[in-house]
Backbone:
């Protein structure tokens, strides 16, 4: 792998981190958000500083031959710790337990990083190696131990991540399970990366030459593993976001008949408040619900409790369940109120009405039921003898 093979994923991680920074600023106390940003930062740094051109430049700037080795190995340790902390916080649980486990992983890998630097300082690596340091110094005292130690750290992280993800995947379903299985696949590649490195080092110890495993194969495995894992982390979040948006648009459309009916109370209001076409589903739904509540407030003086009671009794008599009967009664009362409001724009006959309100104790779901009743043109049948919308006007 050459420079671009490292810099492209590093740039992708940097872009993702930049996208997350505003959220991090707003939710700095959220441990999950901090863990996500730490993972993106560490992944980007690993790819950037592991690139051969960067290795050469860092060695040149520091004036220390092979200084990049402990730097990259320490960054790999930090990346391993950030992965474990992220999965612990993502899974959740008691806050104190999550913090305790996260601190243990951070503390353990912090010690690991210090040991890597100490072993490098104790060893002697006078010949600069940009791509094959692991095998070139496989028999050098202290450098050898540093190489084994960093590979052990990567292996522990890979095995632990697979274990934690597997346990969690057995307890969940849907996109989260799929995401966890993809993460496991990614960390399997990371473990294979460590295995290839170990095999090359062991071959050197035995007098053989399997350097290609470390120099050519291992970087490819690491790159694939990182990208597959990133997909696993992102997939459940993206799919959940899409599912939430799809649900919000569904509710938005279901509320259409009720929204249009109430718009007759104040013509042009909804059109003037229309959002831009690229507005999020959640914002559009919030605006539609707000318009509906404004319309209900405008109709409040015209709500007739007797109308509501008659419609409710008629719906019950027809065999409707309680929720359905309540929605039919609310819709009948609302329809009558709209008629009264249109017939009395100056409010001259308000004294003849009661002060009932549509029962919306369950929030938007009640509004959806009322909207469905209006769409099905059930109001007229549920309130015989009272003014109802003509069939052509029922939305």
Residues:
């Amino acid at each position: 792998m050459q420079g671009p093979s490292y810099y492209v994923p590093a740039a992708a991680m940097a872009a993702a981190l930049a996208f997350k920074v505003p959220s991090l600023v707003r939710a700095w106390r959220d441990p999950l958000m901090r863990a996500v940003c730490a993972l993106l930062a560490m992944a980007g740094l690993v790819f950037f500083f592991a690139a051969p051109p960067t290795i050469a430049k860092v060695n040149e700037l520091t004036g220390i031959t092979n200084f990049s080795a402990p730097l990259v190995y320490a960054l790999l340790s930090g990346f391993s710790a950030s992965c474990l902390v992220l999965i612990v916080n993502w899974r959740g649980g008691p806050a104190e337990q999550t913090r305790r486990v996260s601190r243990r992983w951070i503390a353990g890998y912090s010690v690991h990083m210090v040991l890597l630097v100490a072993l490098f300082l104790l060893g002697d690596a006078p010949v600069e190696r940009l791509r094959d340091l692991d095998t070139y110094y496989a028999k050098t005292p202290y450098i050898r131990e540093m190489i084994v130690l960093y590979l052990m750290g990567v292996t522990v992280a890979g095995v632990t991540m697979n274990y934690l993800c597997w346990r969690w995947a057995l307890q969940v379903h849907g996109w989260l399970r799929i995401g966890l299985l993809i993460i496991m696949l990614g960390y399997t590649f990371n473990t294979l990366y460590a295995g290839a490195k170990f095999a090359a080092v062991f071959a050197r110890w035995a007098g053989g030459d399997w350097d290609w495993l470390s120099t050519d194969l291992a970087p490819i495995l690491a790159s694939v593993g990182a990208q597959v894992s990133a997909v696993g982390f992102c997939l459940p979040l993206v799919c959940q976001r899409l599912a939430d948006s799809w649900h919000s648009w569904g509710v938005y459309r279901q509320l259409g008949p009720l929204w249009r009916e109430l718009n007759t109370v104040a013509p042009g209001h909804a059109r003037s408040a229309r959002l831009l076409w690229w507005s999020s589903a959640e914002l559009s739904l919030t605006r539609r619900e707000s318009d509906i509540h404004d319309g209900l407030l405008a109709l409040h003086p015209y709500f007739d409790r007797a109308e509501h009671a008659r419609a409710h009794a008629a719906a019950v008599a027809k065999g409707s369940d309680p929720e359905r009967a309540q929605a039919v009664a609310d819709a009948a009362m609302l329809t009558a109120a709209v008629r009264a409001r249109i017939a009395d724009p100056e409010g001259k006959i308000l004294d003849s009405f009661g002060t009932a309100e549509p029962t919306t104790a369950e929030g938007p779901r009640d509004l959806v039921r009322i909207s469905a009743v209006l769409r099905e043109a059930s109001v007229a049948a549920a309130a015989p003898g009272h003014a109802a919308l003509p069939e052509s006007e029922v939305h």
In short: The chain has 16 helices and no strands. Residues 211-254 form the longest helix (44 residues). Residues 255-393 form one domain.
